[in-house]
Amino acid sequence: MRRKFTAAALAILSVTGLLASSATAHASVSNGYISGSGSLLDDLGDEGDIHPGNISGATAVWQAILWADGYLDFSYASSVDCNFGPATKAATKAWQADHDLDDDGIVGKKTFSAAGKYLIDAGLSATNRNMRIVEYDSPKSSLRVIAQRNETNGRWLVMIGSSATYRYASYTSC
After folding, report:
1. What is the reported pLDDT for 75?
2. Is the pTM of this model over 0.90?
3. How many helices (DSSP H) and strands (DSSP E) are in the chain?
4. Which end of the chain is more exposed for a tag (fewer CB within 10 A), N or C?
5. Would you say 58 and 125 are in contact if contact means Cβ atoms under 8 Å apart?
């Protein structure tokens, strides 16, 4: 009887642990923003999917990465517009193929994680000590600032091209 109880208790703890770790892994998505805490170098590893048709700040972060890496060959102002349209889809598929990923045009955990390998923590902003500068530097790119992270709430901000203003990298709006 004691063995059955112990086995059942361990099974419950295992399932509870898996559920808890699953919730943690999706923390950024569930709060609606690209976000993180501690080292920003692992912030992209738990992000949710963005795909053609999305209009969001999260899409703008991905477009900033594509632009920094040379896959969107327009100016920053015309490349980073929050709209996951045909140019962003084509650039995403090319980026994925070049990084040995399934080139389905959907940016999910594997694609975000692969891009996250090229993030650089450039330290706190000189003008706003609450903002951490996020740079991107891959073998194909030259070092570029792609975002900032608010150190109070962990949310990423991205500069939207034509407006040249920083906005939170939300999954639901731009």
Report:
1. 85
2. no
3. 6, 5
4. N
5. no
